[in-house]
Amino acid sequence: MKRDDIRFELKHEVLKEVAENEFNGTLDKEAIDKIPFNIIPGITPRFRCCVYKEREIIRQRVRLAMGQTPIPENNVEKLAVNTHVVQVIPAACEGCPINRFQVTENCQNCMQKACQKACAFGAISITPKGAYIDQSKCRECGRCAEACPYHAIADLMRPCKRSCEVNAISIGGDKLASIDNKKCIACGHCAVACPFGAISDISYITHVINAIKDPERVTVAIPAPAAEGQFGPTVTIGRLKTALKKLGFDYVYEVALGGDLVSMNEAKELIEKKSEGKKMTTSCCPAFVNLIRKHYPELMEYVSTTVSPMQANVRYIQEKHPGAYIVFIGPCIAKKFEAEMMEAPDAVMTFEELNAVFDAKRIDPSECEEEISPDATSYGRRFSASGGVAQSVIKAAAENGCTDIKARPCSGVKECKVALAMFKVGKLPEDIIEGMACEGGCIAGPGSIATLQQLKAARMKKIKGKDNDSITDMLTKMDANDVDMVRTSFDMPNA
Predict the structure, then answer these.
(1) CA-angle at 233, arms to 444 and 439, nearest 5°
(2) Which terminus of the chain has fewer Cβ atoms in its 10 Å neighbourhood, N or C?
(3) How far is CA 198 from CA 41, 92, 159, 336, 365, in A?
(4) Does an H or E element contain 410, and which?
């Protein structure tokens, strides 16, 4: 696994135990009750104050792994359908400082008293031992920390809150983090940032396993372009396809084909917009679209009307295999949000979750044979990294006779916000914004299991020397030219 970190090891163990029991048909109340004791045996705690707290955290993680909220909503046991996919695990969310600015031992009780002078709220007093912050008066403006010549005032903002570029996380009186779903864009950055692993995504692996086990159902896996290199340096998309079929999927199609479809459709859309003197943004990253929808709603009319590569693949497969159970597999938590909003595909799994399911079935993708069946061009596979969508759209535009497209790739929410702010005031020089909520692109998504460096190397190997790939020819080869690529109003909820 990626991330030599107890947080992700525990998540993996829980997912694996749940998957094993689901495959064996033994995921009943007795098995569920045993999982915390299987992972935390004996009386010696592994990472917290006591084994009892550790087991309660595991219990709440098991619920997430089974598609439930960490604790019952209104004391009712139910699946977390239409519940926000990013959840706080209450038992794990503690240990962070509740007061953001605190005076440290570096305070020299100096004569300048710059911190006290900088505070506009009278929150700082000077004692014989140094400065003191009255937290009831502090407004967390940070001026005292900036003014201190000794840097003696520490900014202890919780890592989850610091990681959230849309201010969706707040800390309540019970010292637990809470997520404002009206602001949250489901990027999942807080889940990676929390040092206690107290924020996680709801999983639907039990739904997927049940579908795989059903002999009457046709199941289709659609791995994202970021899959290359996730499961080891030798695990190509061809080996992963074999592993997924060994797991029980009937068919496997690369989402990179959806990338080719999106490139072509967005290019045609952009050419038309450009002829009218208008600009637009991409629509493939659901967290980026959420950012616009929730924080820049006046720009929604400029978002591409093209569906995402995931949705394009779903529509393609629904034509080839009507009624099939379709599972998207990728590094993105926000895709779970998109799937719920659009009611397609049937389920979304992260690479973290697939890794646990592989382990549950003792499948090693690196030992699987290579399946050679290219579904897409190198341009469709470039969607996995920042700048890749822009390259692909520019390539598709060139194939349609337009060679003067200028694109602005944005890597991470912060860069996206800067570009959108420029767009809002009419100062954007480029024709199109490529928005990626994760820094580095999808390959840096919160559900990845390999390092960014490993994934970049795998990606470069995959696309090297393939700049002459024809998107037009690939779509014809795959008989994909007639796929409906237009988003409907239902796909653009205001909630």
Answers:
(1) 10
(2) C
(3) 21, 5, 11, 19, 30
(4) strand 407-411
| Residue 416 CB-half CA count within 13 A | 31
Closest CA to 394 of 467, 475, 289, 306: 467
pTM for the predicted model, two decimal places:
0.91
Kindly state the DSSP code that residue 75 receives in the 8-state scheme.
Answer: T
Instruction: Quickly tell me which residue has 């915390």 as its tokens.
Output: 36
Q: Which residues pair with 436 in a beta bridge?
A: 411
Q: No. of H helices and E strands in the chain?
A: 19, 15
DSSP string for 318-385: HHHSTT-EEEEEES-SHHHHHHHHHT-SSEEEEHHHHHHHHHHTT--GGGSPPP----S-HHHHGGGS
Q: Which long-range contacts (CB under 8 A, 24 or more apart) does 419-425 make?
A: 420/281, 420/291, 420/292, 420/296, 420/299, 423/279, 423/281, 423/299, 423/302, 424/296, 424/298, 424/299
d(CA 89, CA 83): 14
- CB hemisphere CA count around 48 (13 angstroms): 22
Cα diameter, the chain? 80
The alpha carbon dihedral of 56, 58, 60, 63 has a sign of negative
State the Cα angle at 159 between 179 and 166, rounded to 5°: 45
The CA–CA distances, whole Å, from 128 to 81, 152, 378 equal: 57, 16, 67
pLDDT tens digits, the chain, 495 residues: what are they? 445 678 889 999 999 999 999 999 999 999 999 999 999 999 998 888 899 999 999 999 999 999 999 988 765 444 444 568 999 999 999 877 778 899 999 999 999 999 999 999 999 999 999 999 999 999 989 999 999 999 999 998 899 999 999 999 998 878 899 999 999 999 999 999 999 999 999 999 999 999 999 999 999 999 999 998 899 988 999 999 999 999 999 999 999 999 999 999 999 999 999 999 999 999 999 999 999 999 999 999 999 999 999 999 999 999 999 999 999 999 999 999 999 988 899 999 999 999 999 999 999 999 999 998 778 999 999 999 999 999 999 999 999 999 999 999 999 999 999 999 999 999 999 999 999 999 999 999 999 998 777 777 777 776 776 788 999 999 999 999 999 999 875 454 443
Burial zone of 45 (CB within 10 Å; 0-12 exposed, 13-18 middle, 19+ buried):
middle
